[in-house]
Specification:
five-stranded mixed sheet, 1039 residues, Immunoglobulin-like, 10% helix, mainly beta
Length: 1039
């Protein structure tokens, strides 16, 4: 830097913690050219020249600061000491200062800025020329003025200061005045006071005026000067000049004193008489603003307030007052007046808010980033008061509930000028509060106190510190299937609490393989569209994520879940799981029993999938349950009547319009073991003669049977259950063929009764019992005798074997004849009594009535009609009328309870229950007895149904020649009691067909058999039969 700049760095105090404890003083001459270096803060303060930001806060427009180094330079606007506001009213000799403030921000640690305060002493240069108040100066000098008298010359002023100010005066006079006048310059209060000195005698009559030249020269280098015409006017003589009582007057006046307020009075005395002693007061060489603020009474010398006094503008008024008499040649004198304007609390504190550091202000608005730390300075607040003393002591606060506070920025501040940092107290959040109105109130200590307010709008600027947020985070939408490609599904929206580009969002779908290509999203609007038709039946719900990314840096993203529920359209027919259904059910199931279940599905949903089923054609035989698809029968099946049923099921959904489908259903009726085997051959009452000489394995008889059931229920097994004590016979289990097992002896001659049991393979098995009579003899000479033996066999208990001749000797035969004859004689007598008793009994029973079966009007001895379609072969069956399904337990009991004796009372004879149904060709023993018996026949008649309560049921009518195990009466006795081969079965199939048979007393039956044999003329056989009958009779009596 050149020496002529005279820049001197003066350290007062160093900075500490960002605030100036003292200050920095630089000196620079005024009017320096632009970019003149004044000082370097970085170098001067020992701060690094990098990583810090220097910013000029106060000092513009005269100064600028380099942001990196802190160097202070002058600008295009020169610093003119004479025009600086703070230097215009300076007291002579006081230096002129230009204040500056520079903030230093640490960019690395991002701390609050430090404030450096300093002053620049603006040194004066001689850039101003001294100036006289006027180009012509007039001085009146009386003609009788003595030599050496002094007269004041109006002063020249120079805006420069000190040595550059007015340094001297020079007087130039013409030849005629050079001997009369001279110049004397006196020092007066640091200034130069030019005075005109009279060197000779003046004579007004010779010359009344003289023109001189006065020159004012400053002390600058080079010097600057100016000149004025000094005209000296010679007046008449005046002996005495006015004299002031004081050489200097001082007074105080309160600022803002009213106009006309008297400040002080100057007084001068003149010892002359008359007009020469009258004095007039005027201001002498008073410069602005004295003439505007004060006036002087010309007669009394009282100085009054003329204009508003403002201590802050001008605190001291200094001027001269001249007292002049009114003589022809007036004389005058002057005195110095100094008036101090005292302070009144008439100024409210001034609150100045300006930017600091990186926080810029524009039109009263400060912008600060929301991520700034606590304690960040938002503004520099300067509070000042133009008053002085207590009136200038100011208290400053932040009003309202805002997150800001004031912190002193400098400890070097004076009472009337303080500086504060306006800094944050809590973290700022743009998303919560975006701007604040900060009001700063300053109150002085005057009485009354004055206050002022200034405000700053703090706008919090956004940083990208928020991620986009979807509201809600889960989007659920219903969307109908079969849509058009590109159809809008929904709009997703996300909000970003940031602003600007930080809040501008781009939407995207995070798609997986399951939805890839199905949906798309508008990146700017968030509108989700379906790219292709959806099928609810393929997939009912889609779920994927969408993201929203802002355009800030760094980028922030938000995520939401989208769930699209595909709504159903009725676009599918109900569908049965099978193309056709076939069910198998057991017969005899009760009505409304389930026979099968169908499954029908409709892949639609809701009412579109609500399927109703119906039977077509609706014959009333089947119904179907909606909801379960269960098919119920309205009838009870009888496989023997109808083995299968075929119909269609119709399924109709609840859509609009409805859709339907059909399926065929076949019901196959399975057989149930509900029919007993029926022996069709031979008849129970028939017999077969077998020669005693027959060889083993000879064919004896073929038992044929059939079962109306099917399958295993119709597979029959034949066995000999009784009547084969000698093991003479055997039967084929499958074919029913009876053959001779071994050779026969003499004792084997006679009637053999084989009890053949025919069982099916059902579970539980059902069976029938047949009697096969084999008469072993060479010939049959007396058929009636054999038939009588067969008839007697029918009433013999099955547990008693009838196997050949029981007497096996002629002696036994003669005993039988003797006893038979005696029995016959007794029987004739008893017969009459029995007949009378029976008739009487029959009449009584007729009166009481009897419950017969459905066939009560038919001939009880008439043979049973063969079923229409019955076949003669075993194992084949037709379609006879079936009885209801048998009920009850299925356990096997004795084989013989079909024929039995019943006792109505203690004295009643045993009643023989006869099977009255025979197959065609079977011998009708009843008819034989009725037509051929020598005893009176008994007419058997069916009884009235009303008599059922007084009669025992004989038996359910079995099939012809077949004894069906039905369970017996344990109290029954006599020849009708079956053996233990009987068994108990289910309820007889013919339980509704009950008939009443004749009741023949046993003695009568025995005698009848004997008489019948006599009638046939066979004495040998008759004797044998009589013995047999007698033995039977004796056994019955014992029982």
């Amino acid at each position: 830097m050149e020496l002529n700049l005279q820049v001197v760095l003066f350290w007062v105090l160093m900075l500490h913690c960002g605030s100036a404890e003292g200050g920095i003083l630089y000196r620079v001459q005024e009017e320096q050219p632009p970019n003149t270096l004044i000082g370097s803060l970085a170098a001067d303060q020992g701060l690094p020249d990098s990583g810090h930001l220097y910013k000029l806060e106060v000092g513009a427009p005269y100064l600028r600061v380099d942001g990196k180094t802190g160097d202070i330079f002058t600008t295009e606007i020169p610093i003119d000491r004479e025009t600086l506001r703070d230097c215009r009213s300076l007291t002579k000799g006081k230096p002129c200062y230009l204040e500056f403030e520079v903030s230093v921000t640490d960019l690395i640690q991002n701390q609050s800025p430090q404030l450096i305060e300093g002053r620049i002493e603006v040194q004066d240069i001689n850039d101003n020329t001294p100036q006289f108040p006027s180009s012509v100066l007039t001085i009146s000098v009386p003609e009788n003025t003595i030599m050496g008298a002094l007269f004041s010359i109006p002063l020249a002023t120079d805006r420069d200061s000190d040595r550059n100010g007015v340094a001297g005066y020079a007087l130039t006079a013409g030849p005629d005045a050079a001997t009369l006048f001279g110049l004397q310059v006196a020092d007066d209060r640091g200034g130069k006071l030019p005075q005109l000195i009279v060197l000779g005698n003046l004579d007004r009559e010779l010359k009344d005026s003289y023109d001189l030249t006065i020159k004012a020269v400053d002390g600058g280098n080079p010097q600057r000067y100016s000149s004025a015409l000094l005209r000296v006017v010679v007046t008449d003589a005046n002996d005495n000049s006015p004299k002031f009582e004081k050489s200097m007057y001082e007074a105080e006046v309160l600022e803002n004193s009213p106009v006309g307020h008297s400040v002080l009075q100057v007084k001068a005395n003149d010892s002359d008489m008359g007009p020469n002693g009258e004095i007039e007061y005027t201001f002498h060489q008073a410069v602005d603003p004295v003439p505007k603020l004060l006036r002087i009474d010309r007669s009394t010398g009282v100085i009054y307030v003329k204009g508003p006094l403002d201590r802050e503008e001008l605190s001291i008024l200094s001027f001269y007052v001249v007292a002049r008499d009114k003589g022809p040649q007036p004389k005058s004198s002057k005195t110095f007046v100094n008036i101090e304007v005292t302070d009144q609390n008439d100024n409210a504190p001034a609150v100045e808010i300006r930017g600091i550091g990186l926080v810029t202000h524009s039109e009263g608005v400060a912008n600060i980033s929301e991520d700034m730390p606590i304690g960040t300075a938002v503004a520099l607040v300067q509070v000042s008061d133009k008053d002085e003393g207590e009136n200038a002591v100011v208290t400053c606060v932040v009003a309202g509930d805002v997150p800001f506070q004031l912190r002193p920025a400098s400890d070097s501040s004076s009472d009337n000028k303080r500086k504060y940092f306006l800094q944050t107290t809590t973290p700022l959040d743009y998303e919560r509060i975006r701007d604040y109105r900060v009001e700063i109130v300053a109150v002085d200590s005057g009485n009354p106190a004055l206050s002022s307010t200034n405000s700053l709008k703090v706008q919090v600027t956004d940083v990208n510190d928020n991620s986009p947020v979807f509201s809600p985070a889960l989007f659920e939408v219903d969307f109908a299937e079969e849509n058009q490609p590109g159809e809008k599904v929904l709009d997703v929206r996300a909000l970003d609490a940031d602003s600007g580009t930080n809040a501008e969002l781009l939407y995207n779908i995070v798609a997986d393989s399951s939805i890839k290509g199905l949906f798309e999203i508008d990146p700017n609007t968030g509108e989700v569209r379906a790219r292709s038709p959806l099928d609810r039946e393929h997939k009912e719900q889609y779920e994927f994520r969408v993201t929203a990314a802002d355009k800030g840096s760094p980028v922030h993203k938000g995520t939401a879940t989208v769930v699209i529920k595909v709504l159903d359209r009725n676009d599918n027919d109900p569908k049965f799981m099978l193309s056709s259904y076939s069910f198998s059910v057991l017969e005899n199931m009760p009505p409304l029993s389930p026979v099968g279940m169908v499954t029908v599905l409709d892949v639609d949903k809701g009412e579109n999938a609500h399927v109703r089923l119906s039977v077509e054609p609706d014959g009333g035989k089947f119904v179907v349950q909606n909801g379960t698809g269960t098919i119920l029968s309205s009838i009870s099946f009888d496989r023997e009547k109808e083995s299968s049923y075929t119909f269609r099921l119709k399924a109709v959904d609840g859509g609009e319009p409805p859709r339907s489908s059909y399926v065929g259903v076949t019901i196959n009726v399975l057989d149930e073991n509900d029919n007993d085997p029926v022996v069709t051959k031979p008849a129970n009452s028939s017999f077969r003669r077998l020669s005693p000489l027959a060889s083993p394995d000879s064919h004896v008889e073929l038992v044929e049977a059939e079962d109306l059931d099917s399958g295993s229920n119709a597979e029959l097994v034949f066995s000999i259950a009784g009547g084969n004590p000698y093991q003479l016979f055997r039967i084929s289990p499958s074919s029913g063929e009876i053959t001779l097992a071994k050779e026969m002896t003499r004792k084997h001659s006679g009637l053999h009764r084989l009890v053949v049991r025919v069982s099916d393979r059902g579970k539980p098995a059902r069976h029938a019992t047949a009697l096969v009579h084999v008469y072993v003899n060479e010939t049959i000479s007396n058929v009636s005798l054999v038939e009588a033996l067969v008839g007697h066999s029918l009433y013999t208990p099955l547990d008693r074997d009838i196997a050949g001749d029981p007497d096996n000797g002629f002696a036994a035969q003669r005993s039988n004849i003797l006893f038979g004859s005696l029995a016959g004689v007794a029987g004739v007598v008893m017969l009459i009594l029995v007949v009378v008793f029976i008739r009487h009994r029959i009449q009584r029973e007729t009166k009481s009535g009897y419950q017969a079966g459905k066939k009560e009007t038919k001939d009880l001895y008439a043979p049973k009609q063969t079923p229409k379609n019955a076949k003669g072969k075993r194992g084949r069956k037709g379609k006879p009328q079936k009885s209801p399904k048998p009920l009850g337990e299925e356990e096997e009991v004795s084989l013989q309870k079909g024929l039995k004796f019943n006792l109505d009372g203690v004295n009643d004879s045993p009643r023989i229950h006869l099977p009255l149904t025979y197959s065609p060709g079977s011998p009708d023993i009843g008819r034989h007895y009725r037509s051929n018996s020598p005893l009176p026949s008994i007419q058997l008649q069916a009884q009235s149904p009303s008599a059922s309560q007084k009669h025992q049921v004989v038996q359910d009518l079995p099939a012809a020649n077949t004894f069906v195990g039905t369970g017996g009466d344990d109290n029954s006795t006599g020849s009708d009691q079956y053996s233990d081969y009987s068994y108990k079965t289910s309820q007889p199939k013919y339980n509704n067909k009950q008939v009443t048979c004749c009741y023949l007393p046993a003695p009568y039956a025995l005698i009848s058999s004997y008489l019948y044999s006599i009638w046939q003329g066979s004495t040998h056989h008759g004797n044998r039969n009589i013995n047999r009958l007698r033995w039977d009779y004796e056994q019955k009596k014992k029982l």
